[in-house]
Amino acid sequence: LLKLPKEAHAQLHANSMNGDFYSELPVAAKSGGRTFSGELGVGGADINMRTINGAIRLAMGRPDTWKEPIP
Question: What is the per-residue pLDDT across 17-44, written as a single tens digit (0 to 9) for each?
């Protein structure tokens, strides 16, 4: 699970051997299947996501609701 603000801009690259890619944000797909590439917003920095067994989910989040990581 990766949470991004709805105004985010990025080049997305997701690879899942045994899972799917889901997005709550509008993504312009360039390729699909087990290796997904697409553009979020107007594009920008690369975001690379990989998993062997599991889905990759891109969710919309508000920064004011994000928690600090537990040390």
Answer: 888 888 888 888 887 677 889 999 999 9
